[in-house]
UniProtKB/TrEMBL annotation:
SUPFAM superfamilies: Anthrax protective antigen. This is PA14 domain-containing protein. The lineage of its organism: unclassified sequences, metagenomes, ecological metagenomes. Pfam families: PA14, PSCyt1, PSD3, PSD4. Residues 490-630 form the PA14 domain.
Length: 728
């Protein structure tokens, strides 16, 4: 129901009211007819059933002579259903008793069937009213995403959520991934719908899971680390080095300036084997050209020569594949430039593919040479002639290589060429919006805290909020006596390095040695690769750290082999000798200001590594080395590492997100106001909360205008979030 300030809609409203009255009349009439029908068949049961199910006997504890006709009562409905089942099975009346006429039985069965069907329909009906229900898993996840400005594969509009996976094949399953709702039970489904009001209820178990998910998403939205330093990847020439007998492998010999694509096969850059290092929005630029769209080799390579060659871009992590876009590459042989922007999570890799290219089975070098280059085709080595297995394999591989090179030199089939791939990080303001929307400037002033929490509550509750409603949440924050947020700077200032050669079992006196290389490190992060050595070397790093305030700081280090960290010339943490990487910690009291840091390390053999970081004084851990001590799985910050203001605001936001006003889709009786209409519309089309456009229209009272409502429906269906309408 809606409030619409339009004559046409008022007419519709009156029609709806009449329609509701008509529906009510139908239900009442149906109920009356059902009761009357049951009364009409009462003589049948008196004649054939009451003897065993009457005042004297009640076989099976069933008595029919006093059974009422009110099918709205579950216990009555259950008994009448049992009677119908017995009649359908032919088990009543008992075989020893006189059998009623089959025509009469069918008549009674039909009447009972219709009456019970009407009763079940009435029981399922909500009478045209919306049933109060909580958000289902998809809606809750999407609401977290939009409320907290989160990104990632788990928050895609068409994401199915975490799945139960048997990781080790022993039948024991677990939920994997980073979905914050991965531990939630599946929502009950009926006829493909997961939004059943009578099923979506809350329990103490579910509330506990919700609190855990809330804490997780708030941490995902919080960014206390320094601005990520991500280099632009500009890859040219051969993006990968395929092995085997495929044409792509031999293309490298003839064409070092581009990567050839001759079939429908994914292409992933070798240098990104472990995926991108930082989750961020990226601009991906591809230079590609299309060749021989129309070609004479259609008999063996049956491509559609009337359509352009389609180049696709997807994102891959293991077996997971996320399509991003497709481009139709002009078939004129000229370089074309294609760009797209997409959010890419850490460890995901961009993947290119020729979507309408030949299959591996179709692209056979031997068949193509035999059919179209018979004058250049040579006979394969004979296994009977070359009896030595290794010699035969060597000869056969060389024969295949020569055949492939000959085919590529005179290739008239269709192909794509990838001339370059550029992956450019688009990290704008820092911290990102997910952080600043929660914590603002970080000064901790009461006025800003009230503004932040009021804005958050209105978006979370999806309506205008009176100050007195959120005052308890605000007091929950203010009573913790918050102070401004202070964060550690990333890296080491004025960082330099000195490289030494030698074979040691313990850290030497580096000052007594002569370095073989020296240099500066602009990004301020310790990096062993600068030594350009794999073993038998040592490095000394020196620079300055800036402590933001007085306090106790903790320095952490994991080295393979020996290493130590000195602050102002005094040892903070040390792990000398030959050993694997083990985490070591040391506490140092520092005054606010600059302090000298010196890091010493040596490597005896391989493998070797060095990772370090610092934190404390109410501030989050910050890395000092290129390789972080904290992996994505263990990067959850300890509560005492998080500034008090952040902790206090997270407590307030968590209380809001665990409140019924957020977790439930609640509507007042009567016609919907604009905020309720915005909420109903967004959860119907997006399975998520309204966006700022819908909120603005609701605040102005314009959303309920028919023309505006139609515009918003069109806009929402065209939005990428509209994929949820089909998926969920």
């Amino acid at each position: 129901m809606r409030i619409l300030n339009d004559p046409e809609v008022h007419i519709a409203g009156r029609f709806f009211q009449r329609g509701r009255f008509a529906l009510l009349s139908i239900f009442l009439c149906s109920s009356a007819l059902a009761d009357e029908a049951l009364i009409n068949i009462k003589p049948f049961f008196k004649q054939h059933c009451v003897e065993c199910h009457g005042s004297d006997k009640q076989k099976g504890e069933i008595r029919l002579d006093t059974l009422d006709h009110d099918l709205s009562r579950p216990e009555t409905l259950e008994i009448w259903q049992g009677v119908l089942d017995q009649l359908n099975l032919g088990e009543m009346p008992p075989k020893k008793q006189p059998r009623p006429d089959m025509v009469k039985i069918r008549e009674v069965v039909n009447i009972l069937t219709q009456s019970l069907a009407q009763a079940y329909a009435k029981a399922r009906s909500t009478g045209g009213e919306t049933v109060l229900r909580r958000l289902n898993r998809h809606e809750l996840r999407n609401s977290f995403r939009d409320l907290l400005y989160l990104n990632g594969a788990d928050y895609r509009p068409d994401a199915a959520g975490s799945r139960l996976i048997d990781n080790n094949g022993n039948g024991s399953v677990e939920r994997t991934g980073n979905d914050p709702l991965r531990f939630f039970p599946e929502d009950e489904e009926e006829d493909g719908f997961f939004n059943l009001g009578d099923k979506l209820v809350m329990s103490d178990f579910l509330l506990k899971l919700t609190l855990g998910a809330v804490e997780e998403v708030l941490n995902q939205a919080t960014h206390l680390e320094p601005r990520p330093k991500v280099e632009i990847q500009h890859l040219k020439g051969h993006l990968s080095k395929p092995r085997g007998r495929e044409l792509e492998a031999f293309c490298r010999e003839l064409h070092p300036d581009f990567t050839g694509m001759y079939r429908n096969e994914p292409l992933r850059p070798d240098v990104l084997g472990r995926g991108l290092p930082v989750s961020a929005r990226y601009r991906i630029t591809v230079e590609a050209s299309s060749h021989n769209q129309k070609h004479p080799w259609g008999e063996i390579l049956p491509t559609n020569q009337n359509e352009p060659l389609r180049l696709s871009l997807s994102l891959r992590k293991g077996r997971e594949l996320l399509p991003v876009t497709q481009w139709n590459v002009k078939g004129d042989g000229q370089k074309q430039t294609y760009r797209v922007e997409a959010w890419i999570d850490q460890q995901w890799v961009p993947e290119l593919n020729w979507e309408n290219g030949p299959t591996k089975r179709e692209l056979r070098t031997d068949l193509l040479m035999k059919k179209y280059r018979a004058d250049q085709a040579t006979k394969a080595p004979d296994r009977k002639v070359i009896t030595d297995k290794k010699e035969y394999e060597k000869a056969n591989n060389e024969w295949w290589r020569q055949m492939s090179l000959s085919l590529l030199k005179n290739f008239e089939g269709p192909s794509l060429r990838i001339h370059s791939l550029k992956i450019e990080p688009l990290i704008g303001e820092w911290p990102p919006k997910s952080h600043t929307a929660l914590y603002g400037s970080g000064l901790g002033e009461e006025k800003e805290i009230r503004r932040l929490m009021m804005t958050f509550a209105e978006r979370a509750f999806r309506r205008s909020v009176k100050p007195e409603l959120i005052e308890p949440y605000i007091q929950l924050v203010l009573k913790q006596k918050v102070e401004p947020v202070v964060t550690l700077p990333g890296g080491i200032q004025n960082l330099s390095y000195r490289v030494y050669e030698g074979q040691w079992s313990k850290l030497p006196d580096f000052d007594a040695l002569t370095p073989v290389a020296t240099g500066k490190i602009l990004n301020g992060l310790i990096d062993l690769k600068l030594s350009k050595r794999k073993e038998k070397f040592g490095v000394v790093f020196a620079g300055t750290l800036n402590a933001p305030k007085d306090g106790q700081y903790v320095f952490e280090m994991a080295s393979d082999d020996g290493g130590r960290i000195l602050i102002n010339g005094k040892k903070a943490v040390e792990h000398d000798g030959l050993h694997g990487a083990q985490l070591k910690k040391g506490n140092v009291n520092l005054k606010a200001g600059k302090h000298a840091i010196r890091v010493e390390y040596f490597a005896y053999g391989q493998p070797n590594s060095f990772r370090a970081g610092w934190g404390g004084a109410g501030m989050a851990h910050t890395q000092l080395s290129v390789d972080s001590l904290r992996t994505p799985k263990n990067n959850q910050k300890k509560r005492d590492e998080v500034p008090l203001l952040i902790r206090a605001l997270q407590d307030g936001y968590a209380a809001i997100l665990c409140s019924p006003q957020f977790l439930y889709l609640e509507e007042s009786s009567g016609q919907l106001d604009d905020f309720a209409l915005a909420s109903r519309l967004s959860y119907f089309l997006w399975s998520s909360m309204p966006d700022e456009t819908l909120f603005a229209l609701a605040r102005s009272g314009k959303l309920s205008q028919p023309a505006e409502l139609r515009r918003q429906v069109d806009r929402m269906l065209a939005d990428p979030k509209g994929a949820a309408f089909i998926q969920h």
